[in-house]
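Changelog note: in this version the structure field was regenerated for every chain. One regenerated record is shown below for reference.
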Amino acid sequence: MKLIREDIVSDIRLRVESVRRNMQQMQMDAVLIASNANIFYTTGRFFRGYVYISADNMPVWFVVRPKGFEIGDDIIEIRKPELIPDELKKLGISMPGKIGFEYDDMTYSDIKRLEAIFPDSQSVNASPVIRKARMVKTPWEIDQMRFDGIHQAEVYRRIRHCYKEDMTDIEFQIEIEKTLRLEGCLGYIRTSGNLMEINMGSVIAGDNADAPGPYEFTMGGSGADPSLPVGANGTTIHRGETVMVDVCGAFNGYQTDMTRVWRLGEIPKLAYKAHECSRNIMRECEKIGLPGAKVSDLYEKALKIAEDEGLREYFMGHNQQAPFIGHGVGIQLNELPVVTSRSRDILEGNMTIALEPKFVIPHVGAVGIENTYVVTASGLECITVFPEEIQEL
């Protein structure tokens, strides 16, 4: 069977060329890719093995598992990585002077093993090179994310009907997850970094939104078990509370990120005010999110609006506040750039970012929205189109 679909061959060439441009800036002769997300990025599918990208030769895929692929000069079956140098020599590819490995994405022992295979090469960290390439999406990648956004919105249209009286937040989330799977969601969220863990998303009701968590998420939640302390915690949803739904949009190996809020009964005016402030922040960020703008400007604009509205103490949390309002999204939920005051990144056309200026109102719950955007010449284009007002369960 073929390892790559014909419809994305040209798009993968664009991704590889993006990696190569970043390699040249770092004066790397080659990179050897082994992590799941980056193999998928550079090949269009996942296999256990390695992708070797050099400055002057075609990429070579070294496949350990599964067997049965169409083998050629660019696709080679191997049993172990120690065979890679000999296979490269057979192809007339010389050993690199400087080679990059994914220091941020692999274990120490795996890195040392790969470095030993290239004893005469200087090894450097290639993770930033690939992450930078992945920040700017190709046309095919954006099409996949638009597809995700359409289907995620279709699920959100049915969320209200997932609720039954006296449900717990976990029971509510299970019904939402069932709807997601029936819509075609793959059922997982691929994240970057060993400190990030989550299930199919967060459904956070009432005071659980104010429970601090160990993860770098906008909202916390104590979770259902100490082994995964995030999100729904099994409490019954009460009248006068909000329920924030931030669940998986992964339908094809890419992801969109969207949050909307529902209420049970009436909620205080302060909650409505904060929610409308979130929407106002989005409208302003959509205008200034142009190619060439500083990513940090989005954060500073959001913070100023929240302060001007007198909502700073509730912004991005209450007991524990997050120091960012968004992040890149694509193959992984938490890609670059991070939308924070410390960011030095500059927006580029076809970046995809999720913005989530949220608030936590004590004894009510979380409010605010999240959308996934494409950076365009006219500003940020939303690809998670769904009504933003607080809706009633």
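Spot check on this record: The chain has a mean pLDDT of 94. The chain has nine helices and 17 strands.
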